[in-house]
Amino acid sequence: MPGLSLLALTPDDLDDLSRFEHANRAFFEAHVNARPPAYYAEGGIQAAIAQAVREAAEDQAYQFLLRDATGVLVGRVNLTRVRRTHFHSAELGYRIAHAANGRGHATEAVRLVLQQAFGCLGLRRVEATAAISNTASCAVLRRNGFVQFGHSRRSFELAGRWHDLLHFECHALQEKERV
Asked: Rounded to whole angstroms, how far apart are CA atoms 169 and 141?
């Protein structure tokens, strides 16, 4: 999807990220476990950005913002739990703004972050999970070359209900074969 860009999270993104997180809080919390209340309190998002910058500098995790052609923040993409020795892997997570859903942004965000992961970050494997009921997210992963390798039952609780998770993986060689 032309016009979307993936940029590393920086302290300069505080205002945009605050608006994005607050505007989409209820939407996100309907699908994933809620962030702690301190995240939304005064200074919480600023502290989270500072932590993200530290984690990137320490090669532990990488957080990116997805912006449309006009610069509007439409999503977030994260590579967390980076493991270098023996694994060269990370875990993928993403969130697309409620108003931007259904436009292919998630598919493009994952494509762009895989370029980062398998390119300049030198990772060899990226893992992701999706609730079995989240068919859209499963489709995004599959469109980007992810293959399901597992199914964990009653893996996480959300709103008092237990949910199954599907586990996916994508390898650097798969990325090169797709392009």
From this structure: 9
* pTM of the predicted protein model: 0.90
SS3 state of residue 121? coil
Domains identified in the chain, total number: 1
- Judge whether 108 and 1 are in contact, CB under 8 Å: yes
pLDDT per residue, tens digit, the chain (179 aa), is: 458 999 999 999 999 999 999 999 999 988 887 888 899 999 999 999 999 999 999 999 999 999 999 999 999 999 999 999 999 999 999 999 999 999 999 999 999 999 999 999 999 999 999 999 889 999 999 999 999 999 999 988 888 889 899 999 999 975 445 54
The tokens describing 86, both together, are 């023996």
* DSSP characters over 37-105: HHHHSTTHHHHHHHHHHHHHHTTS-EEEEEE-TT--EEEEEEEEEEETTTT-EEEEEEEE-GGGTTSSH
CATH number of the domain encompassing residue 44 = 3.40.630.30
